[in-house]
Every structure is written in structure tokens, then in C-alpha cells.
Amino acid sequence: MSFTDSPPATSPPRTRPAALDLPPLPPDPDREARRQALFQNVGLRPGTLRINADSLKPRLFLMSYDEKSYTEDEYTDRYDELLTFLREHPDLKHWIDVRGYDDLPLMERIMQDFGLHPLQMEDVLGDYQRAKVEVFDDNRLFLVSRMTDFTAELTVHDDQLSLFTGPNYVLSFQDDYEDCLEVLRNRIRANFSQLRRRSVSYLAYALTDVVLDHYYPTMAAIGDYIEELETCIFAEKSQKRLLARILRVKKDVVRFRRLVYPERDKMSEILRLPDEIVPEEIKVYYRDAYDHAIQALDLAESYRDSISSLADLFLSDQSNRMNEVMKVLTIISSIFIPLSFVVGLYGMNFQHEDAHGHVLPLNMPELYSPVGYPILLCVLLLIVCIQLYYFWRKGWLNND
Amino acid sequence: MSFTDSPPATSPPRTRPAALDLPPLPPDPDREARRQALFQNVGLRPGTLRINADSLKPRLFLMSYDEKSYTEDEYTDRYDELLTFLREHPDLKHWIDVRGYDDLPLMERIMQDFGLHPLQMEDVLGDYQRAKVEVFDDNRLFLVSRMTDFTAELTVHDDQLSLFTGPNYVLSFQDDYEDCLEVLRNRIRANFSQLRRRSVSYLAYALTDVVLDHYYPTMAAIGDYIEELETCIFAEKSQKRLLARILRVKKDVVRFRRLVYPERDKMSEILRLPDEIVPEEIKVYYRDAYDHAIQALDLAESYRDSISSLADLFLSDQSNRMNEVMKVLTIISSIFIPLSFVVGLYGMNFQHEDAHGHVLPLNMPELYSPVGYPILLCVLLLIVCIQLYYFWRKGWLNND
Amino acid sequence: MSFTDSPPATSPPRTRPAALDLPPLPPDPDREARRQALFQNVGLRPGTLRINADSLKPRLFLMSYDEKSYTEDEYTDRYDELLTFLREHPDLKHWIDVRGYDDLPLMERIMQDFGLHPLQMEDVLGDYQRAKVEVFDDNRLFLVSRMTDFTAELTVHDDQLSLFTGPNYVLSFQDDYEDCLEVLRNRIRANFSQLRRRSVSYLAYALTDVVLDHYYPTMAAIGDYIEELETCIFAEKSQKRLLARILRVKKDVVRFRRLVYPERDKMSEILRLPDEIVPEEIKVYYRDAYDHAIQALDLAESYRDSISSLADLFLSDQSNRMNEVMKVLTIISSIFIPLSFVVGLYGMNFQHEDAHGHVLPLNMPELYSPVGYPILLCVLLLIVCIQLYYFWRKGWLNND
Amino acid sequence: MSFTDSPPATSPPRTRPAALDLPPLPPDPDREARRQALFQNVGLRPGTLRINADSLKPRLFLMSYDEKSYTEDEYTDRYDELLTFLREHPDLKHWIDVRGYDDLPLMERIMQDFGLHPLQMEDVLGDYQRAKVEVFDDNRLFLVSRMTDFTAELTVHDDQLSLFTGPNYVLSFQDDYEDCLEVLRNRIRANFSQLRRRSVSYLAYALTDVVLDHYYPTMAAIGDYIEELETCIFAEKSQKRLLARILRVKKDVVRFRRLVYPERDKMSEILRLPDEIVPEEIKVYYRDAYDHAIQALDLAESYRDSISSLADLFLSDQSNRMNEVMKVLTIISSIFIPLSFVVGLYGMNFQHEDAHGHVLPLNMPELYSPVGYPILLCVLLLIVCIQLYYFWRKGWLNND
Amino acid sequence: MSFTDSPPATSPPRTRPAALDLPPLPPDPDREARRQALFQNVGLRPGTLRINADSLKPRLFLMSYDEKSYTEDEYTDRYDELLTFLREHPDLKHWIDVRGYDDLPLMERIMQDFGLHPLQMEDVLGDYQRAKVEVFDDNRLFLVSRMTDFTAELTVHDDQLSLFTGPNYVLSFQDDYEDCLEVLRNRIRANFSQLRRRSVSYLAYALTDVVLDHYYPTMAAIGDYIEELETCIFAEKSQKRLLARILRVKKDVVRFRRLVYPERDKMSEILRLPDEIVPEEIKVYYRDAYDHAIQALDLAESYRDSISSLADLFLSDQSNRMNEVMKVLTIISSIFIPLSFVVGLYGMNFQHEDAHGHVLPLNMPELYSPVGYPILLCVLLLIVCIQLYYFWRKGWLNND
Fold first, then answer.
1. Which H or E run contains B303?
2. DSSP-derived 3-state class of residue E212
3. Residues D389, D392, D395, CA angle at the centre, nearest 5°?
4. Tens digits of residue pLDDT in D229-241
5. Which residues are registered as beta bridge partners of C225?
6. Nearest to E129 by CA among E141, E114, E142
7. What is the largest distance, in Å, between two alpha-carbon atoms of chain B?
8. Any CB–CB contact under 8 A between C337 and chain A?
9. d(CA E171, CA B79)
């Protein structure tokens, strides 16, 4: 008897009473659909390669150089030619630059041709892999970096750069046609560049470092935006959803910090690798990069503090505006309510004569005084002045 | 004389005056009863097996496979047959899958037949055991994982999966008939699956990994719900008990983080085990799982930050709504209170003639002007306009 | 010349100006007296035994057992008999159970007879000693545990259990006649109990473990109370001093966490002790206890988070109630203040005729219209309706 | 040409625009003067001895003892005699007790005669040195402790006690004539005291321990004051600047924690010293002191939590009082504003007859009803009752 | 085919829907321009020297000394003479002091002549390098310190001091003509100064230490300013933007803490260096400096706590002022609104006679009483008194 014949084995529901019965949310089919979609791809064999839905068609570039010569070409859709070229020029140093992942068979061929582990390839193609370094095949490195940018849409954007070193090449993967590595390509193109004289180990370092170097302007742009938000708080008109913006930046800074943190660990791990894998003369550079990573972390933490202060400022300002509203209400009410009482007083109908025409001299004689009204006006004025003086002394009248 | 004869030895009450005398809570017999129930089962011999009240009747499943053949069957209530089958097929790899615990004698037999320690069995059957790994009998592993799910009721649900490895089998325990391991069973059922070619060590890894893989969609579903809550904050009508919901999710995220944290430690402990117990080629996979655990932790911390921000937003929004209430009050009061004073003023009864018919020209001559009333109406309108202008400049009139 | 002859050497007062001159508190002789009492007992020779004022008269109990026989008795005021019994039965395992400390000479005799260090005895008798383990005399253990309980008065109560192991006995101290160890005594009393077959090392473990086992129901009772408080927050009537209660529980949870934390360290220290002191087969049990301690810590931290959330909920609810008060004020004021203005308007005394009987047609002709009053009432009703509609659309009228 | 001839080299000012232009503070010559004074003494040669302005004239005391004999004397202004006495009694144990520093030449002589390093002496005389231990001359100890007290002015006061051990003496420094060591002196004076039988290592320990013992009553006094403040919060009248007081205590507790923290490190460092420097039988005592330091830290952290809770309570209470103010306003306004409208309604002057004497029956017929006024009064009373019932049901009328 | 001929490879935009659609910010060309400028200099070859835009023209100073002789001179624009002098006096100890960086060729020459690594030079000239120590050429040190000052503009200013040691010289770099090292120069100028007798290792220490010594007055000045702000909070008139000031100081303190933190690490790293590089007799001094760094950190953390308390105080005070505003409104409204009702009551026009002249005795007979008005005035007074008494008992009338 095979198991699949048996009826589906369902567990009876077990009730766990909630601490407090929140009223049930209205059922939302969208939410349920989204939830089920999330659990779909779970449990695939580790090392199973999957291409994300929004990946780009891969383009292949090759830069080959030694101290004296240099050549570069695009090999998109010509992967075999690329391999041939590599095989024919074992004496050159090569940078194979793959941009875009959306061609599973190609990715699998690259994986096999360059001796990569399926789990590594999974890290390359996956959604998100924090910065790390792995040694494989005894002396090859697998380096993951996260490239950041503070976009014109005012958020931090990050992309992954995956590097594999080989005896005479560096193989890089990224899922973007445009990147921040152009400056490095120009350094290779330049004659007499140090980069061309040095080993591919140095090229791998240079690629890692240029990504790290981008952290500073990213942070600076965030800092600039934070100052802009600070100015908004004190602006005449409170801007709509300012707090939401502030908290969004905070999220970005926290996310950025989480990007940089593993970068620091990566660097320190590289520094602890034996000299056979990363030679001492390259480690000098990684030590410098390590310093930079620490300083970027420091900066990110400063920014996080700044943003918390900003949120405090915002809330205090909000409370301040409330204060002002209350003051206006209090001043106007306090001035006019007593006045209204006084004029109400003299609107009363106490009779000055009784039904028989006898004068009742105690009933509101003020109304019959020839200067009653002017005196009353003066009294009202006096009340106003006293109150204004009181508010002025309290400091409520200056526009703070 | 035996001790049990002596009268109960009670201590005189010792008074510890509270710092501040809170008024005593009304006595609540329920609370007291619940409290006493809690202290009931304390102090049993460690390793004493107890079945929780809401456990399910156990069902037994067996999958047996090698590279070429494969068979599966349900052995519920046929435990002896299962043992016989195992004994008869020492060359196959077996996955014995126990679902439900509510049969103490069976559990004890399994414990003895498979050489488990009573303390381990107690961990299996108990309420809650954080993820961990234990080596026993020199080269067997006891692995505890926590399976998570974000249920349609919008909370994180977690269950325990306990694994024991043996020379040619994996023994798994869980207290649920439905689980997240079906995908793995299908991988075994598939011909030529890598899983069938590899050792049971790899099966144990695969079971551990599939649980870990569920953390991502769980987090994603939480993230989805957080965004839904964020939208609610800015919705026109404040939803009831929104903060309670936000704080409940926070609790879930914190709990989730506490589930994942030991998972990371488990992985790193496995990586430090000698290669005789976990072979190097399996460790490569655990290293990958370790990375995933760290990233799940990162994500959980991001979510915790997001929720804190959400609570801040909610409170600021609450204060904002208060502000709006105050503004409406202030605008209406500020406009009408002065007007009321003015009309009260002309409701006064100052007499224009004294008792003898003499005109008192200073007493409210306005009332006798032929255009007194129209002028007054204009004055009132003017006052309103000035105030509206003032409020408009303050920015109180736009519906911000 | 002896020093005591010299006049008292007093230092001239040194002024340290406070940052902000807070007005001096009214002198409070009580406070001063309490302060001086506190500094009284300082500087005694370390290892000086002192009995706390609220200690109980000591009662002595002895349980003696081996695999086959078992006897127990109370030896209060018969300490010498107890010693004799111990000397006469070197082959039995003994549990000497001292409850209450208030007999200094007895305590000192016990200290000497059982080879305890004065500093250890000071820890036993003192106010508070965190959980710890000490090895002395090469292979004896001194174990301190803290027994907890969530009392009917809704606070965490904790007491100290001090254990000394010897070659064939365990000596325990506690300052309470009733304890949580009765379950253990019953296990000893039971025939064929594992406890009776095992060494006194195991008895020491069992005593330590039963204390640890009490942490779970203590936490559960706290959790239960927290849920009760959560319900109170949303109850119709705010309960008096709810926040004070919440913060008191928080204090308890934090205190509880501080009790458990050293317990974990104690367990991990025991696990690191050489096998000669704690045999491997006992360490298996301590490893289990270590797991439990970690989980209790986890739970305590969860509760701390829950309570912080609770306090946030409370404050938000407080602000919510304020909001509601303001809404009632705003609705009533906003409705009636304009109405009052209108009726005030038609209470003005502008004259319809001048002194000479000429009609002044512009002065409040409405008052002379035959339907003036009914129209006015309609206008008033209309104003009310418009305002109610506005408030209803704002969502202020539903009882949210 | 010498450098001092060159004109002063000043840098051109570099402008760093502030993020937000805060209005400049009014120039404050005092502030500037204070600022410059602070930077005055910077850059002196390390090890340069300086006496603080508020130091006391030094007084010298000597206690010399062995198991049988004991003598003490004050040697103020007789330092040479003290040295002679020490030289003549190499077999006694000495405690040289220096109180007050204000005699630089004397301090320098002591430094040289007792072989202290100038940097150590700088630590002794300086403003503030955290608790620490240093080994010098291979087997001598330099111990710094901080003595604390909770003064009658309700703040934590701390002073420094510096100890140097020598072959047969302990040299102590403090800048106060009165101290907390008197209890120790009495223990030395007592015949048969253990202190007199033991080495000077033990004396150094005893001095360190007595300081540590003072941390408990200091904490207890703070705890006492915290409870007093808690009572104030719930007192009928809010006390002036209560929050400032609460935050001041918090500052004190945090400062205290910072005093104790290095004390713990000091103890653990002593425990790690080789047995030649601190013999094992003394380490037993230090281990006890280490426990005490940890518990003092625990307590300090508990208090910090308590104070944070206190501040929360205060703020909630403040908001509560606001709530009450608002309730009074709301109740009174809500009751009387509608009433005022009604009476205003019947103060209108709609005419019951037109100019020609025709009755306008629709214009306010109520005013002509014989029971108009009594009915109106009843209506008003009814409105009040309805409102009071509404407020009572809301729970606003009980004095909560 | 060369790569540069290919058309620019642009990626199609990938949409990531934001969680909540915040309204887009108005486009701001400035912001965009600033953002692009930030990303300009990224990716230069590591070790590429760049001079910051606001650097000063370099000035060169040389102090040369041994125990007996001493000479100093400015060598600005005479670098070759300086080198010659150094070469001619190998027996003297030299301090080469470079102030200002704005001469790239000179900087490169110095780098080569003194054997510095380009990465080190980059650290010297760069924007910001945290304090650190590096060993190079086996026994030379590269030390970076951060000099701080609390300027008259009430912010913390920090500058970098970079030091390189050589066999007989110390080479220092800073980008300021004025510095805090003058006191050290004077110590060198002084005859018989210890500094002149000791090695250049000690000079390097002294330079590091004098920078560290500046941390204390910097902190003290911050502390002074914090107290000033505390006074402002309780001042009669709330100062404008006080919270912004408080948060700015907080930022400064946090930044200061971040400056000092690596200083501590630097010191502890120096202490771990082998004695060949930093001799033991110099380490004694560094150990002292290490203590100072820790205490500066302690202080910085104290200040951070103080400032948080200050912000709490400010917010509580803000809420307090609100409270006061509300009280004034409540007192005035509560007193006058009932009075207004009463006088409104007697302003009603209920007729005392019907159209036929019949008296309607129930209609407001009070108005016809001869003492109606005086009685009414008394009643009003009574109402006022009752209310004042109520407010006085609530404690609302005393000026808090």
C-alpha cells in the first residue's frame, strides 16, 4: 500500500485563545493570496538555480590586459567565443563581466566552466546576499559586495556584486547594465595604470574597494537630505507627512548600516586569511578598506542618532503648534467671556417700576444714569487692558 | 517517629511593606485557581515523559529509499511491523516520521528502540524547546528546529520539529499532521533526486534547511501585514485598536527573532563539529544555511525597527487628530465669542430717557441711528473676515 | 600619646555648587534616621555571621536513604542526635535540611561540623546572594539557588536555597518552613525512585533543578497577570493607578530576569567543572537545566517587551480619553456658540422708531415680520444639522 | 634665526555652515572666561604633581601592630619621626594614613621615600581616578577605590582612597579628615582581632572591602529616596520640580553605577593575579568582594529601571492632571452653553404685535403663556440632568 | 571591435512600489546637483593623493634638540634646506612639523623622502581618519590623533594630527597654523626638560598625550554649556529653539564619544605592541593615557545621559506650560459661563401681563421684586466664591 493513496491527514484545529480579543479584521482575499504566493517556492533543493522575475537578459563583457597590451569586447550571445579567447590567452589577465542573469542555461554553463559551486551560484542569482568572503578550491575567493546609491527618489538603492577569482581572471556578476565600476574600467584602459601591472588579486581588491568607496557619497547624500528635512520642521507651514518621511529615512539608514556591517566583517576575515591566498602586499590595501568600512559604520550610526533627534524635534514642534492653538483660544475666550457677562448683566429686565408705577430704586439704577453707558464702555476697556497686560507678562502675546 | 506524622510546618507571615500602597485588587477566584494550576506539575523527575493535553494521536510514516528503489507507507498502529521492516532492510535509508504524541507507551517504546535519552524525549514532547543540536552516542545528532508560519489569523505560529539521526535512518517528531515538509517528500519520491543518492546526514540537513527556508516567507508575510497597518494609520478613519494590533505584531516579530536566534547558534555549532560527525561535504550546505539564518535575523531586526516607527507614527497621528479637534474648537469659538459680545452689548437696557422723559444722549445713541443695525451687521462681518484671514495665514484652514 | 586623645578631626565643608538650585526639601527627621541606620552595620569583619531580624527559629530535618531503606525525622533542638545518627550511618545518603536561621550558636556549630568557610556561611545567612556555584575542599560544591513564586499578592517573591555537598550528604539551608521541595521529598519517599539509587551529587542536582522548574509557573503567572492588566486598559472605566500597577509588574519581571541570569551562568560553570567533581552522567542533567535557564531568560525578556508595549498602550489610551473629552467639548461648543450668537443678535435693542415716532425701516425689520420667529427657528435647526453632518463626516460622532 | 621671532602664524577662518541657522546666543563673557580657564592646565608633563585648590592640609596617622602589641599616633608635621619609627620597627605591620594633600613638598618626599611612580602619585592627587589595581615593583599593589556616601543633601558623594602595599606596610591616601574606615581602626585596636594576626595583604583587602561595603547602604539610601519621590507623585499637590529631582537621582544612580563598574573589574583583575602577589587565602576574600561588587551593580541597574519608571509615572500623572482640567472645563461648558442658548432664545425681541397693533401669533407665543417661565425652568433642569447623567456614565464625575 | 564603440547599455527601469505612496517632493535642482557632486570623486586609485579644497598652504617648522642644545626654525618654502639640516645632524632629535597641506608636489616629496606609504599619506591628507596606530617598516609608528576643542560658537571642533616616527625624528602633519601643541614646544624649549633627555619615542607619546589631555577641558566646556541650557529650561520665558540647541549638543557629545572611542582602542593596541617597538618605560606612560581615554569615555557617556534627561525636562516643561494655558482658560470659562447663563436668564422677555393686561404671576416674578437686582448680584458673587474655593482646593490658583 502506498502512502499517496491514504486520505489527506489533517490535524484538528487547536484553539489558542488570544490574550485580548481584537475584533477580527475584515477578510481580505488579496492578503491571503499574497500570503500563499510567499510560501510557494520554499523547500527547493539547495543549490537549485532560479532566476528572479525581474532579471535582465545577460550581457557579457571581457577586458583582457597585461602591462603592455589591452583589449575589451562585448561577447553577449557569444559565450563560446569568449571561452576560446580565454583559452588562447592564458598569459593575459581577464575580467569577465556578466550583467544580467535571465538565461538559466548560460548561467549553468558558466558555473560549470569556471568551477563554481551550485550554492555559490545560488547566492549570486538570489534575491539578497549580505557581503561575505569565501575561500574555495584552496586559493580562490568568492566575494560578495553590496553596491549602494542614494537615488533621486530619495531612497537608498542597493545591488549585489559577486566576484570569483581564478588563476588569471576575475569573474563578476551583477544584475544591472549600468554600474559604479566604469571608473575602474577607465583605470584599466589607461596606459601605465598600476592596475595593469598588478595581479588579478589586486583587480578583485579594486572592485571591492570601489564599491566601498561609494558608501561615503551615499551617506553624504542621506546627510544632505536629513538637513533638508530639519529645515522643513522649522518652516512656517508644517509639511504634510513629514514624520513619515523622517521615519522612512531612518529605515534607509538602518538598512544601510546593515549593508555595511557585514562589509566590515568581510574585510576583517580577508585580513585573517593566510598570505598564500591574499598576499601581504594586497592586505595593506584591504587594511585601508577595513578602516573605511569602520568609518562608514560610524557615520551611519551618527546619522541614525541625528534622525532620532529629528523625530523628537518634530514631535516637540507638533506639540508646540498645539500650544499655540490653545493660546489663541485661551486669549480670545478669556477676554470676551467676562465682557459678555457684563453686557449680559445690563441686558437683564429687572423692572425699575412696579406694576403700580412705584420706582424700585435698587433695581439696576445704573441703567438710568446719564453716563451709564460711557462708564460701562470704559470699564470694559479696562478689563481688556488688564487681561492683555496679564497675557503679555506671561509671554503669550509675542509670536514666540 | 516518621516525619509525615508531624503537623504541617508553616512559617509566620513576614510583612514587606510595599513602597506605595496600591489599593488591593478585588479578589479574583479565577486568577487564584489559574495560579495554582500553574504550579502543579513542577518538580517531576527530569526525564519524566508527559504528554500535553492538546497533543494528537500519533501517526507513523516511513519512507525508505536508496538510489534506485523507493517505498513509503503509513504504519499508524503498526509500530511492530515498522520495526520489522527496518530490521529487514538495513541497506536502505529510512525516514521514520512520527506525527502526534498522544500515546505515552508508544513514545517510550520508540525511545528505547532507537536509543534516545529520556531527557531528549522530554525535549521532544515538551511545550517548547529552542532550536539546538546535541551529539550523542559519539556520532548521532539530535536536532531541534522550530517551524514557523504566518497564519491567516495574522499571527506567527510555530511548531517544533525534532530529529534524531541513526546509522541509516532519520527519526523525526512533530505534533501536527500537516507540515511544511511535503516538498521534501516529493523530492524523495522523484527518481534520480540528489537526495536519494546521498547519505541520511544529508536528509537530516535537508529537513533542517526546509524549516529554515520557511522563515523567509513568514517574514515576508509579516512585512506585508506591516505595510497594511501603515496604510491604516493614514486612512481617513482611524481604525479601532490599531495600536493594539501594531504592538501585537511587534510581539510576534520579537518572538520570531527569538526563534531564529538559536537557529543561528545551532548552525554555527554544527559547523564546529568534527568532520567525523558532520562530513565536510555536508558542512558546505550548513554554511549556506548559516548565512540564511543570519539574514533572517537581520530581516527580523529590520521589521522590529519598522514597527517601532509605525507606533511612533500612530501616536503622532493621534496627537495630530487632537490638534485638529482643537483647531475646530478654536476657530469656531474665536469667531463667535467676540460676535456674541457685540450683540450682547446692544442688547443692554440702558435707558435713552430718564423717568422724567429727559433724553440721556450718551446712553447707547447707536440704537437710535437709522442705519445702526446695517452698520452693526457690517462690523460683525468685518470681524469675521479679519479672523478668517488670520487663521488662513496661520494655515489652520487648509485641511492638512 | 594615644590617638584617641586627639580632638575629633573634622574636615571643613567643601562647597560644590549644584548645577541648578532646586529648592531645598523640607527637613525630614525620619529620612535622616533611616539613612543613618543604613550605614550602621558596615565594615564588620568579612565572615562575621549575623542573623537577620526577621529570621525564623531553625528547624532541622533529616532524610536518610539508600536504594533499599529510607528514614526521615525532625531533629529540631536535637542537633547532637542528628550528628550521632550521621556518624552511625556512613553508608546511607543523607539530606540535612535546615529551615530558619535564628540561632547563631547553632549555625556556627553546623559551620564547623560540616567544614564550611565563614564567608560561605555569611552568604547563606545574608540578605541576598545571587545564584552561584563554588568548589571547595577540592571536590565539594556550594550551590546557591533562588526559589521564586508569584504570590497571591501579585508580586514575585524570592527566597534563597543554599546547598553544600559532602561525601555522603547534602546540607541545605533556607529561611522558610514551607518550600517548593516537598515534591522532591515525596520522590525520595517513593520506593524504587531513581533518586534513591543515585549518588548525592544527583540529589544536589535534583534540588537545584526543582528550583529552576519553578521559574516556569512563576513566569506563567506573571504572564497571566499581564493579560489581565491588558484587559483592564480597554475596559470601559479606566482603573485607578493602572500604570503604577503595570510598572510594578515590570519591576518584578526585571527583578526576575536578574534572578535567572546568574542561574544560567551557574549552570554553564558547572558544565565546565572537571568530571571528578561533577561526573559526566550528572552533567547530562545539568545540560538540560542549562537549556531551561536559557529559555526562562528568553521568556522573561519577552514579558519585559510585553509590559513595555502595555505601558505604551496605556499612555495612548490615556491620550485617547483626553481626545474624547475634547471632542465632546468641541461638538457642544461648536454647535451652541453660533446659535447663541444668532439669538443674541435678535436680542439687540435697535429701535424701530425714533424718538419722534418715525419708523426706522433698516433697524431689525426681521423682528416685525409675522413669520420671523418660525423662520429663525428653522435657520437654527439648519445650522445644527450642518454642523452635525460635518462632525459625522469627521467621524467624531461614532463612539469609537 | 629663532622661531619665536616670526610673526604669529594664524590660520584664516574656515567656514562650516551649520545645518540649521540657530539664532546666535547673546555673547556671554562669563561663559567665554570659564571656557578659557578650562583649557589652561592642559599639556603639563605627565607625572607633574599638582594639588587641587580645595585640598586639605595633610595630616599623618600611623597604626603599628602585630599579633600582641599595638600603637597608634598622629604624626602631622612630624614626617621624619614617622620614618624613623618605621625604620626602627621592621617587624611590626604599619598602616600609614595620609589625609589631605595640600603640601606638595611633603607629597614628593613620600613619593620618593616609599618608591612610588610619579604617574601613580598623579593619580592619587588628581581630580578623579576610577577604581583600579596596578602591580609595580614586581609584587607591590597600587589600589584605587572610590568611597561613596548618600549625603543628607540627597546626592551621592564620592571620594578617592588610594592604597600602596609594601613589605610590611600599607600606605593610604585620602583627601578628607573623616572617613568610613574608623570601623576598621577599631578592629585593629581590638585585641585578638583576626586583622592583627594576618599579613598587610589582608589589611589592604580589608580597606578595599570596607569601601565596597559602603556601596550597599548608599544604594539603600538612594532606594529610600526613590520611594519618597514615588509617594510625592501621587500626593494631592504636585510638588514643584519633581521631575528635575527624579532626573537628578537618575544622574546619581548612573554615576554610582559608573563608580562600581570598574570596582568589579578591579576585583576580577586581582583574582587573576599570580598567587605570589595575592596569596590564595586572601583571594578567597577578594572572591567574596567580587560577588558583592556584582550585586551592587545589579542593584544599581534595578534602581535605574525604577527611576525610569518613576519618570514615566510622573509624565503620565502630569497628563492626568491635564485631563482633569479639561474635564472640568468640558463639564461646565457643556452644561451651561446650551442653557445660555435657551435663555438667549427667549431674550429675543420678536414683536408680538406689528406697528398697527395686529397680533403676530407665530412670534414667540411662549412668552405670553401664563406658565411659560416655570415650564422653561423645568426644561433647563431637564437638560442639566441629562447631561449630568451622560457625564456620570462616562465616569467623568467620580474624582478618579 | 572595441567596447567604447558600443551604444550605452542602459537597464530598463525596475519598479519597486513603495509601501506607502508619500506625495512626491517638489523637484529640487540644487539637491540633485549636490547629490551628483558627491559621487564625483569615487573610485580613484587607492593611495591617490588629493588635497581638500579648503586646505592651507603648508608651513614647515623644525625643532632639533638633544639634552644640551636646542634650535628651532621655520623652513616654509625651504624644504631642501630642511633635508640638508636633518642629514647634517643625525645625532640630534628632530620634530618636523608640517602645517597645511595645499601643495601636492611637496607632500609627495615628503612622502618619498620619509618613506611613507601612499595609503598612509592618503589618510593624512583625507577628510577624516579616526584615531589609530599602525606599525610599518618593522619598528616605525604611524599615529593618528584627533584634536578637539569646544569653540566659542558652542560646538565641538576637531582636527587631525598625524605622526610618523623615524629613527631620530617625529614627523607631524596638521591642517591648521594654530594648534594645542604650543605647550609642548615650550617644554622642549625649556632647558633641562625631561623631554629633551628622552628618545623620540617619548616625543611621539607626548604629542599623543597632549591631544588626549585636551579632551577633558573640551568635555568640561560642554558640561558647562549643558548646565546653562538646564537653567534656560526653568527660566521665566522659554527660549526660542531650546530643544534644537539641546539636540545639537547631544549630537556633539555623541560625535565626541566617537572620537574618543578609537583613541582608547589605539592606546590598548600600543600597549600590546612588542617592547622592541614601544619600550616598556614608554608603555608606563601609555598605560596612564589609556586610563585617561577610558575616563574621557565615561564622562562622555555621563553627558549623553544628562542631555537625554534635559530633553525630557524640556518636553515636560513644554507640557507644563500647556497645562497652565489650559488652567487659565478653564478657570475663566468656568467662572463666567455660569454667570452668563444667570444674567441671560433674567434677560428673557417672558411677559408679566398678557395682551389683556392680566398679570401672569408665574412669569419671572423676580424681576418685579424691589430687591431682585441686589439679591441677584449677591448670588453671582456667591457662585464666584464657590468656584474660586474649588479651584483653590485643587491647587490651580497658586502659581505652581
1. helix B280-345
2. helix
3. 155
4. 888 887 766 566 7
5. none
6. E142
7. 133
8. no
9. 83
All residues of chain D having their beta carbon less than 8 Å from the beta carbon of residue A230 are 19-20
On the 0-12 / 13-18 / 19+ scale of CB atoms within 10 A, E290 is: buried
Q: How far apart are CA B293 and CA B281, in angstroms?
A: 19
Q: Could you give the CA distance from residue E193 to residue E333 in angstroms, rounded to a whole number?
A: 79
Three-state DSSP at B96 gives strand
In angstroms, what CA-CA distances link C127 with C42, C130, C162, D237?
14, 10, 12, 37
H or E, element range at E370: none
Nearest to C159 by CA among C139, C187, C181: C181
B93-99 and B169-174: which strand pairing?
Answer: parallel
A73 contact partners, CB below 8 Å, separation of at least 6: A61, A62, E1, E2, E3
Query: Which subunits count as partners of chain A given 3+ CB pairs below 8 Å?
Result: B, C, D, E
Residue with cell 567643601: C14
Going by C-alpha positions, the residue among C175, C180, C127, C218 that lies closest to residue B12 is C175
Q: How many CA atoms lie within 13 A of E148 on its CB side?
A: 28
Question: With contact defined as beta carbons under 8 Å apart, do E136 and E142 qualify?
Answer: yes
Q: What is the 3-state secondary structure (H, E, C) of E43-60?
A: CCCCCCCCCCCCCCCCEE
Quote the CA–CA distance of D337 and D331 in Å, as a whole number. Answer: 10
D342 CA to chain C: closest CA distance, Å? 8
Q: How far apart are CA E222 and CA E228, in angstroms?
A: 10
Amino acid identity of residue D381, one-letter, is L
By CB atoms closer than 10 A (0-12, 13-18, 19+), residue D19 is middle
Helix, strand, or coil (residue B24): coil
Q: Is D255 within 8 Å of D156 (Cβ atoms)?
A: yes
User: H/E element holding A63?
Assistant: strand A59-65
Rounded to whole angstroms, how far apart are CA atoms E77 and A270? 43
Tens of each residue's pLDDT in chain A, 400 residues: 333 333 333 444 443 444 445 665 666 777 777 777 777 667 677 777 888 888 999 999 999 998 888 899 999 999 999 999 999 999 999 999 999 999 999 999 999 999 999 989 999 998 788 899 999 988 899 999 999 888 877 888 889 999 999 999 999 999 988 888 888 898 888 877 788 888 899 999 999 999 998 898 888 888 888 888 888 887 766 566 788 888 888 888 988 988 899 999 999 999 999 998 999 889 989 998 999 899 889 888 888 888 888 888 888 888 888 888 888 888 888 888 888 888 888 888 878 777 777 877 887 788 888 888 888 889 989 999 998 998 888 878 765 4
The C-alpha of E211 sits at a distance from chain C's nearest C-alpha, in angstroms, of: 28
Q: Given phi > 0 = left and psi -120 to 50 = alpha, else beta, which region is E241?
A: left
Place of cell 576610577: D130
What span, in angstroms and rounded, lies between the C-alpha atoms of C296 and C288? 13
| pTM of the shown model | 0.80
Nearest chain A residue to D337, by CA: A337
Query: Which of B149, B340, B360 lies nearest to residue A340, judging by beta carbons?
Result: B340
Amino acid letter, A290:
Y
Which residues in D lie closer than 8 A to residue A227 (C-beta atoms)? 19-20
Residues 338-367 of D with CB under 8 A from A: 347
Q: What is the mean pLDDT of each run of 10 residues along chain E (400 residues)?
A: 36 41 65 73 76 90 91 92 93 94 93 92 88 91 92 84 94 90 87 84 92 89 87 70 85 89 92 91 90 89 88 83 84 88 84 77 80 86 91 74
Helix (H, G, I), strand (E, B) or coil at C54: coil
How far is residue A358 CA from its own chain's centroid?
Answer: 87
DSSP for C329-376 reads HHHHHHHHHHHHHHHHHTT----SB-TTS-B-TTS-GGGGSTTHHHHH
d(CA C136, CA C134): 6
